[in-house]
Task: structure prediction
Amino acid sequence: MRVPYFPGCTLHSKAKGLDYSTRASLAALGVELTELSHWTCCGTVFPLAQDNYIGMVAAARILANAAKEEGGRLVTVCSFCYNVLKRVNYVIQNNSEARQKLNDYLEENYTGEIQPVHPLEICKEHVGFNVIRNKAARSLKGLKVACYYGCMLVRPAAEMNFDDPENPTIMEGLVTALGAEVVEYPNKITCCGSYQVLHDNALVMQRVEDILNSAITKGAEAIITSCPLCQFNLDWLQEKILQKNAGFRQIPVLYFTQLLGLALELPQESLGLDQHYVDPRPLLVGA
Amino acid sequence: MVDLSGKTRRELVERIKEISGQNPNLCMQCGTCSAGCTGREFMEFLPRQVMRMIQLGNAKALNCKSIWVCSTCLICTARCPRGIDIARLMEALRVINLRQGREVLIAEKIPVELLTQVPQMALTSGFRKLSA
Result:
């Protein structure tokens, strides 16, 4: 199966490990991602002001370009990209005034026919967790994993239509299929503070400490996510937490695709495991 | 404190309603938004209080730190029992400021150490939400 793929700006730079591990893991599962020939940044955040059409233009253009490829779907893995593409697509489908304005501006005739799809959905619905269980040559048995969704994958529920917005379980399904143990903790859909890392560092520090400590207290050895900004905040700020509290026990924060890639025995050096602040390799070599 | 005339207050409420597409008068002050808010401990007015200020056309809502601490995580929107998209009301308060050039995220003030490390998406999203 070949599906058009939109990596997004961060996956071509700071989150190369997410890009590679997504492509390689899905390829190993029989899904070939073909990168769109033309793409730009999606805009990262869906504009919440009713009159902000320009904030939707980039995502609308990406969707219109995807509609020129075959398949009717567009895979994207970054939670921000997925959120923006899906919300803008929802607007184009349901708001005729916005649809007209965006199409007039772009000189396109796009009506929302593309379905943005997340690799977690590909794993569950198109490949199947049972198939993944059988293909996972290396069992991650014994590894205790906390799944972190954050905000953008699940909210707003009506538009994202992704999973239960208060208690999503799709990532846990994948973790279980890989043989690892799911750790339940109360913060899987709370926000890490997001872009406030640039503006209110103390806020993000507090949110990150709260999320990490709740996962660690419940016995997690690793946290997984699909968002490069969550990954950065949860991983990079551990250095600052350690400076403040020498007793803090660090925890690796991975992309779910890196865990999937490990289980599928993809070459470890290409999964980007060396690009994290808290090195996950000591834990995963023995897993 | 800015004390506005009744007419100015009504105009402010109308402007906020127009930009957000939301009806702030639906708010019954239950505080569910504030209980789950990501930035609650860093706000001088909790989202529930900001909602009340909007209902009354109180211009303090435009000048409070709360609107800039919001990370648009939508947990308030997701949980509001009155179905108000509270994040859109917070955004309206931000954009009224931003469209007049009042901003809080200044590129030059971001520490270089952070600037070179953060993923690109943080810069784009941060500037879109917090810079004019």
